[in-house]
């Protein structure tokens, strides 16, 4: 499977030429795409368009311009919610960039079997996404049962569960949960990217007298920059959509943590508690714009995904 | 000097390994102990299998066996959506890779953008859309949105575009196969590796999805396990002292919660282990350009 990728560029040129000569039967392939199209439209494009329509109209369907956006921004919970998700995303991104890159570099220099075992160990929590990972961490944050009780006590100053999840800790706690479940997957990706660096390049640097740290920083790091950019943009977009973690902690904390902690939660409450679908749509559109912007940036700028052969 | 550097490296790796693995280990051991033993005993000790069966008895009794229903629902949602994903994404990837129809590039770009966009960004818009169509609360309102999985289409596309030589398909056409037979006899049998990959990603994404079913399903008997877990959490006095006193006696304490979490993870863990090798190769080899 892997060998066919190396010859891609020359092959592609040839194939494009062949396709042009075969282009007589244009329209070929369309029937194969047809079953997928309704799904793309119904659950990809239509919801976005409908949310935009709702965001610019009132409950009677008449145009209101930016009114829904301004009134949601004026909501006293809007500022804190966006502040929370940006602090959380910042902490998470920082941890991802530093630790994922460092760990991948450390693993890349290792003997193969050691490296494989560590990658597997780091990857394990990936199986526990969603509500399960949050539940695991609720246990870990409860000083009465946590194996890390001494850390909770000394780092967070917490002797009780409610002290562990004090408001100031939350962005860090959510960042840690996200890092715990997702970092292993990214380490695998970065490690794979490091493996695409030709060994002769490293050998040449070594002959020139570069030590392992210099090789890591000056040779390997610049060569995986694209992947780091990809990870940062994608995680930024994902981070801003935070919902599960604060929602579950809200349920576990007797309302100590508000149910409008993150922006997506606020949008959810607008729809479910107040049945204000236009306000919910306005916040959803704010978040959609962030997600779309990041996606377009990745597709057009990083060159990691092909749209043409 | 060299050995110091080597030692330091191993220490850093080991510290992170503990961070990643210790919570999982704790979770596996927790159901073997009573709530009291969890508080007083050593966190990584093993209790007894008797305790596990006791915890299961309590968990199973919760709300008239609803835990089984949740697991069943999750299996139903994840398997049916993944079946639809396979039936639509594999042909779509094929059509996008070898097709010549107008709008092919646009379709591919749209697929790519929706695929990279975080799924959570679409949940409320999907909810608002289904709500306006009065489809909220039905099982299909979960399965159908789950069945839209652009990443699967992209995986199939990239596989066909890079690993299947077009000449092979041309040969089939020359032999008199129509478009459908060419796909059915040549392209589909070649798709085995990518079918496994799409199955894995789609199944895991559906199984772990919390937000969409949480927004769309109101009746707790239709919850998937992820939403069920949060329901279980809010009914237990372990984190919610108010529940224990005045509320109903549900017998759900930390060991039961840990067991519920553990069971909720098992299907994904099995899929993870089965496809680990293919996955690690596919993640870096097939999913992206390099």
Report on the structure:
By secondary structure, chain A is mainly alpha-helical. Chain A has two domains: 57-77 and 260-286, no CATH class; 78-253, MetI-like (MetI-like fold, Orthogonal Bundle), CATH 1.10.3720.10. Helices cover 72% and strands 0% of the residues of chain A. Chain A has helices at residues 3-6, 8-22, 30-33, 37-55, 67-74, 78-108, 112-123, 130-140, 149-156, 161-164, 170-195, 199-207, 212-223, 225-240, 244-252, 263-272, 277-302. Chain B has helices at 2-29, 35-40, 49-61, 66-98, 104-116, 120-132, 140-146, 150-163, 166-174, 179-190, 192-208, 211-216, 225-234, 241-245, 254-285. Mean pLDDT of chain B is 88; it is low at 282-290. Chain B is globular and about 75 Å long. With 290 residues, chain B is mostly helical. Chain B has a domain at 64-234: MetI-like (MetI-like fold, Orthogonal Bundle). In chain B, helix 4 (66-98) packs across helix 11 and helix 5 (104-116) crosses helix 8.
Give a nutshell description of this structure.
Chain A contains 17 helices and no strands.
Characteristics:
heterodimer, A: 309 residues, mainly alpha, MetI-like fold, 2 domains, 17 helices, globular, disordered N terminus, B: 290 residues, disordered C terminus
In CATH, the topology of the domain at 64-234 in chain B is named: MetI-like fold
Using only C-alpha atoms, the radius of gyration of chain B works out to 24 Å
If interface size is counted as residues with C-beta under 8 Å from the partner's C-beta, which chains form the largest one?
Answer: A-B, 121 and 112 residues
* Category from helices, strands and their pairing of chain B: mainly alpha
Quaternary structure classification: heterodimer
Secondary-structure element sequence of chain A?
A: HHHHHHHHHHHHHHHHH
CATH superfamily of the largest domain in chain A: MetI-like
Just give the CATH class of the largest domain in chain A: Mainly Alpha
> What's the overall average pLDDT of chain A, rounded?
87
Q: What is the 3D shape of chain A? A: globular
């Amino acid at each position: 499977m892997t060998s066919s990728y190396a010859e891609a560029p020359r092959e592609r040129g040839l194939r494009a030429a062949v396709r042009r000569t075969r282009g007589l039967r244009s329209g070929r392939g369309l029937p194969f795409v047809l079953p997928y199209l309704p799904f793309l439209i119904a659950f990809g494009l239509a919801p976005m368009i409908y949310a935009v329509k709702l965001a610019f109209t009132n409950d009677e369907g008449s145009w209101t311009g930016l009114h829904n956006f301004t009134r949601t921004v004026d909501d006293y919970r809007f500022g804190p919610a966006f502040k929370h998700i940006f602090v959380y995303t910042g902490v998470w991104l920082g941890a991802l960039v530093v630790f994922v890159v460092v760990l991948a570099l450390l693993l890349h220099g290792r003997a193969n079997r050691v490296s494989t075992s560590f990658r597997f160990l780091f990857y394990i929590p990936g199986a526990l996404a969603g509500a399960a990972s949050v539940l695991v961490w609720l246990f870990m944050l409860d000083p009465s049962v946590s194996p890390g009780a001494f850390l909770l006590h000394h780092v967070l100053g917490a002797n009780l569960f409610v002290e562990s999840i004090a408001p100031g800790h939350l962005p860090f706690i959510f960042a840690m949960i996200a890092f715990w479940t997702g970092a292993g997957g990214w380490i695998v990706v970065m490690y794979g990217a490091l493996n695409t660096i030709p060994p002769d390049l490293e050998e040449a640097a070594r002959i020139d007298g570069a030590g392992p740290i210099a090789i890591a920083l000056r040779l390997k790091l610049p060569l995986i920059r694209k992947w780091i950019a990809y990870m940062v943009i994608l995680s930024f977009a994902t981070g801003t959509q935070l919902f599960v973690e604060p929602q579950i902690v809200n349920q576990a904390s007797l309302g100590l943590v508000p149910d409008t902690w993150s922006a997506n939660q606020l949008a959810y409450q607008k729809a479910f508690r107040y049945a204000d679908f236009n306000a919910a749509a306005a916040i959803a559109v704010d978040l959609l714009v962030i997600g779309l912007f990041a996606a377009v940036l990745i597709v057009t700028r990083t060159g990691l995904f092909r749209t043409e052969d | 000097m060299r050995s110091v550097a080597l030692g330091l490296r191993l220490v850093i790796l080991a510290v992170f390994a503990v961070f990643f693995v210790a919570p999982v280990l704790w979770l596996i051991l927790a159901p073997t102990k009573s709530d009291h033993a969890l508080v007083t005993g050593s966190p990584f000790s093993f209790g007894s299998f008797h305790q596990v069966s006791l915890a299961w008895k309590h968990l199973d009794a919760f709300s008239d066996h609803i835990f089984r229903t949740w697991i069943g629902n999750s299996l139903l949602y994840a398997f049916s959506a993944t079946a639809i994903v396979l039936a639509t994404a594999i042909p779509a990837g094929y059509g996008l890779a070898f097709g010549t129809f107008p709008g092919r590039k646009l379709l591919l770009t749209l697929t790519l953008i929706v695929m990279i966009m975080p799924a959570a960004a679409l949940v409320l818009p999907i909810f608002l859309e289904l709500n306006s169509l009065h489809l909220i609360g039905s099982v299909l309102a979960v399965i159908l949105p789950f069945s839209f999985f652009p990443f699967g289409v992209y995986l199939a596309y990239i596989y066909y575009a890079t690993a299947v030589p077009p000449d092979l398909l041309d040969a089939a056409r020359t032999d008199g196969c129509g478009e459908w037979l060419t796909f059915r006899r040549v392209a589909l049998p070649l798709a085995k590796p990518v079918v496994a990959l799409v199955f894995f990603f789609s199944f895991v994404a559906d199984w772990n999805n919390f937000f969409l079913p949480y927004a769309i399903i109101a009746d707790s008997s239709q919850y998937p396990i992820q939403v069920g877990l949060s329901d279980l959490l809010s009914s237990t006095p372990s984190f919610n002292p108010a529940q224990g006193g005045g509320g109903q006696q549900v017998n759900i304490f930390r060991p039961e919660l840990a067991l519920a979490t553990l069971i909720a993870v098992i299907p994904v863990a099995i899929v993870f282990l089965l496809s680990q090798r293919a996955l690690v190769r596919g993640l870096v080899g097939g999913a992206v350009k390099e």
